[in-house]
Design goal:
It is built from six helices and six strands; from the N terminus they run ββββααβααβαα. The chain is of the alpha/beta class. The strands form two sheets. It has a four-stranded mixed beta sheet with strand order 3-2-1-4, covered by helices on one side. A two-stranded parallel ribbon has the order 5-6. Helix 3 crosses helix 4.
Length: 167
Amino acid sequence: MTLYFQEFTSPLGNILLTGNGKAVTGCYFQDQKYFPVSGAQWRHADEDALLNEATQILQAYFACGKLECDIAIAPQGTDFQRKVWDALTQIPAGETRSYGQIAASLGKPGAVRAVAAAIGRNPVSILIPCHRVIGSNGSLTGYAGGLERKAALLKLEGADPILRLAF
């Protein structure tokens, strides 16, 4: 399957967007953990309408802190990972949840580590807002793009991780 990609520069560094022609499949900071390895099936696509729309959504987000994403996204992962990623999309901007709260919302309160691992593998960061998940004590932990970026994204959205954490 052909994977289309384009890059753009955000205030927090270069971002790689990938898509399959029907949906966005990846949104990665250039130096983040689990950055994808390109292959023969990758095609540079500056004129791809879907990726251009994703770029516009992200540019607007960085300008105002509001994420209005109504494009198709199709992250590749296990059924459990996709359930976790779907739960992340339910966290409103400006709010945070703990890994334990996400696990509990899935009916698996004992699966905090599995939830954390799934969140760490989110291939569509920002669009699936994994940066809104923090430690149970309000600390900023675990972000594949780096904790400085996580803090910056939360600040952009107006979140105070300690005061906004719902117990």
